[in-house]
Amino acid sequence: MIKSNIWMTALSALTAGILTVSAIAMADSKDITQFFSDHGAEDAAAFDHSVWDNLLAKYVVASDDGVNRVDYTGWQDADHKPLKAYVNALQAFDPRTLSRSEQFAYWANLYNAKTIDIILDNYPIDSIRKISINEGLFGYFKESVGAAGPWKAKIIKVAGHTLSLDDIEHIILRPIFKDPRVHYAVNCASFGCPNLSREALTGAKLDTQLDAGATAFINHPRGFSIEDGNIKASSIYQWFQGDFGGSEKGVLDHARKYADDTLKAKLEGKNSINDYGYDWSLNNIQRGS
């Protein structure tokens, strides 16, 4: 009985600690969202993304199967330093001075550039889920079963705030902009993810670029595939269903908005999804179609 009470006390203390940490994290998240919600005038000066634009054009390759692949070997050998310099320049800049559309571009470019930087720091690997950062023994175990990933590590600092990749996506981009096309703008270096663009996002072209990303993904089997009337969709639409109307019908209505004639015909009258899937293997040019 005494041992049982000790375990119960320890468990209660651990639970209380977890709840306290979670409450603090939620409060911090709201503060970060509020802090970065400010933006400059529409005619405010834009950040220069030309370095990133040139690197993307050089190392991201459009393939015949519709998947953009990355030449990580070439990038690591020749141009990792310019990438790091670009990431550092982004971190040294206060994005609150930018217009709203330029802010979106800034955060998405930072997310993607830092993701590539992390891959190059750990390459060669076959999946981003093999990477853990600052997680000690727990990270080692996650790596060993292929369930790690760098997303929660606080490795980015912008305007005095230390951020993770998850913070950029889920505390800044999604709640501030409330645009489901966020999911076509950020890339997790995996085959299952919407394509990493071959050009930097910019405020001037943002809507066109986001629509192009949505169209490319939705009309590719990674986004939606239909066999014998059964719909299989990317797990993105299951994980973030709330961003697409909060239901499978909402997801399909979103898909129909960007579907070509062939896909639109297959989706006609459909309000539910039969299955979901996602490919976490690295979007490496070394892998064929």
Outline of this structure?
Helix content is 51%, strand content 8%. By secondary structure, the protein is mainly α. The strands form three sheets. Strands 5-6-7 form a three-stranded mixed sheet. A two-stranded antiparallel ribbon has the order 1-2. A two-stranded antiparallel ribbon has the order 3-4.
Description:
- This protein has helices at residues 2-35, 50-59, 72-78, 80-91, 100-122, 136-144, 165-177, 182-185, 206-218, 236-239, 248-258, 261-267, and strands at 60-62, 68-70, 156-158, 161-163, 224-227, 230-234, 275-277.
- The protein is mainly alpha-helical and 289 residues long.
- Strands 5-6-7 form a 3-stranded mixed beta sheet. A two-stranded antiparallel sheet has the order 1-2.
- Strand 1 and strand 2 (68-70) form a beta hairpin.
- Helix 4 (80-91) crosses helix 5 (100-122) and helix 5 (100-122) runs antiparallel to helix 7 (165-177).
- The longest helix has 34 residues, at 2-35.
- The termini are far apart.
State the helicity in percent bands: 40-55%
Strand content: 5-15%
Low-confidence stretches: 13-24, 137-142
Q: What is the global morphology?
A: globular
According to DSSP, the number of beta strands is 7
Largest sheet: 3 strands, mixed
Order of helices and strands: HHEEHHHHEEHHHEEHHHE
**Global mean pLDDT:** 90
Features:
globular, mainly alpha, 3-stranded mixed sheet, 289 residues
Secondary-structure blueprint of this entry?
Blueprint: H1 2-35, H2 50-59, E1 60-62, E2 68-70, H3 72-78, H4 80-91, H5 100-122, H6 136-144, E3 156-158, E4 161-163, H7 165-177, H8 182-185, H9 206-218, E5 224-227, E6 230-234, H10 236-239, H11 248-258, H12 261-267, E7 275-277
Parallel strand pairs: 6-7
Antiparallel strand pairs: 1-2, 3-4, 5-6
Helix pairs in contact: 1-7, 3-5, 4-5, 5-7
